[in-house]
């Protein structure tokens, strides 16, 4: 491999690790909302695919290591996947062990990465012989995936009932655009609709703020005081095999392995299920919380890595919640990537291995060391100096720009409409996975509905 290309990959991985170490610590930064627009911009600007993949792998590893920090410090999840750990992290904080909580979760992420990378690469190559068979049934598989994910949500009936109306909305807008000549007939506006779903909760909240009665009724809070303990700062070089106990190492490795194989399932659902399963019999609250958070963090990292690599290497189609969410731009970003021409078709097996290894190793070396050694200082700086709203505003601006590039001014209104509906569905408990699966299967659903 070209030395210059390796240097570019390492540089991209460094940038990904640094950027998403900061973003990961900021409270409430959803993985899909902060990863997808940046990755999409890199794809559309013509960056080498192998460099983009190194950046993306580094970003997700760094994001998953850091999004547990605000959980441990303030009980606020850094992202959706960190939400299941809040209750257990608060137990440790109550016992004055917030610093231990951060180390346990970060170390769990390291173990999850170390397990998921080789397992994902082996499993992906094992599935390659079956790729054509799976691709032939891709559209009904997306529809079946929407149903399965709907059945895994809390509001099952509501999620199932929303599939058809949401598909009608998506295809209705596409036919409107074709009818008025905004885009050529048969051209599916996809990227901006996808991003509209991604930032749906943000769009819904912004529209609600325009309602005077709603705005007045919102609760007001004083400044929240967050205290940091200066005791028990970690000395020496961080080592996950020393920070985690043998039992924690065992359960974290096992949950990470299971998470790698269950890449097609909802990461949040499987995280809650396995995390509680492996800690439920432990009586001591501190030991139980430590076991749960380390296992959960390892599993989330594994689910993200396997959910990206296995569909990307084996299929070239986003048949997993992770692939259809944060990693979507690696599969479908017209005109650069399409389902028929993306990283799956461009990169070789060795390219995938190199990009994955460089991205994950760089992120682990930088982010894990920084979080275990300096998490409190970094967290204090970000809480004080980097407003959450500013980051959301940046991503919202990118979405509007890409919506205009997709289908002009009218599409900004279309994206707002999809965002309002998607945000409402999300608030009602219908997760992103269901909505993204419907987005992919909408043409197939409507064509079969009308015969």
TrEMBL record:
Domain DUF112: 11-431
Spans through the membrane: 6-26, 38-62, 68-86, 107-131, 137-152, 189-210, 352-371, 392-412, 432-450
Keywords for the protein's UniProt record, in alphabetical order: Membrane, Transmembrane, Transmembrane helix
InterPro entries noted in UniProt: DUF112_TM
Protein origin, superkingdom: Bacteria
Descriptive protein name: Tripartite tricarboxylate transporter TctA family protein
